[in-house]
């Protein structure tokens, strides 16, 4: 049965009727809006996928800090359904800069919630025990996961950083008096070696310990109940066993993700069969565990392939019976002539992106209504 026969037709959806939909969210005290979002994302993923763009409303190709603007909206008339932000400046900066960033992102999150969109949060976490920022830099960076775990030399500092995140989570109160839910995606691409928390620099047991502490401290000690927790390695796995090698357990993950640029045209290399296999793995795990799955990052820098949206991305997403809540492409830099992942007016792939937008399978912000309620509509 097609739950959503056509996204252009309004359809009332009633969730949790007679206990039919029972999903394994890890925070039993999650806010009503967070629970409803979780359930709605699961239901949407059965027939559709939401489109997301990182930093979509903060800046775009040649512009920044303009109210209610995004490159995606300039092209399609709608913002992306999922808007990415980052907690990068919540640590390793002056107190003044951190507070300024918190206020700026607070408006972003509340505005997105108010429009009916969804926020996902990545965390390019500046190394708390050394210089070097969030990337690993030989001769500068310290392998710090073992240092921030309970008993480690920088554990107290890590708790203070998590307190900053919790304060932000408690601050995003919208006009309706409710806290805006967020999909929180810490320690992403942990199977690579480009971040200081990467596999090359961490023991499996330490990574799991820090992940479990992070969730428990935010949820159980600091009282954050508007997060959905996403687990997303890069694409360096070929089996369910490899994907779950650093999995912290069912009590600490809500959403299974994957970041994959390498199979989708980076440096001219395409391996869509490998991509399908990996997406099938994360979708299958989510179905089995009654949790969410999403394609948490992808894209083709500069989008030189004029039909990439329909002939590469969409075909791959529709080639298997996948249940993915959303697909997110990376940011559009303000000044770079080449560093962008979503089209803007005049860009080569605009006609194909409009076909992608018009396809009944894809959903954008203007297709959603009441996604934070038990009853919601697709427009």
Q: Identify the strand order in the major beta sheet.
A: 2-5-6-7-8-9-10-11
Number of helices: 10
Let me know the number of strands: 14
Helix- and strand-based class? alpha/beta
What is the straight-line distance between the termini? Answer: 19 Å
Give the name of the CATH architecture. Alpha-Beta Barrel
The average pLDDT value, as a whole number, equals 94
Gyration radius, rounded: 20 Å
CATH class value: Alpha Beta
List segments where confidence is low: pLDDT < 50 over at least 5 consecutive residues: 1-5, 8-20
Would you identify the CATH H-level superfamily?
A: Glycosidases
GO molecular function, one term: mannan endo-1,4-beta-mannosidase activity
Subcellular location: Secreted
Signal peptide: 1-24
Site (Plays an important role in maintaining the position of the catalytic nucleophile): 188
Helix-strand blueprint:
Layout: E1 11-14, H1 32-44, E2 49-54, E3 59-60, E4 63-64, H2 71-76, E5 82-86, H3 95-115, E6 118-122, H4 145-148, H5 155-171, E7 182-185, H6 204-221, E8 227-231, H7 240-243, E9 255-259, H8 272-289, E10 292-298, H9 308-318, E11 326-329, H10 350-358, E12 362-363, E13 368-369, E14 375-378
Parallel strand pairs: 2-5, 2-11, 2-12, 5-6, 6-7, 7-8, 8-9, 9-10, 10-11
Antiparallel strand pairs: 1-14, 3-4, 13-14
Helix pairs in contact: 9-10
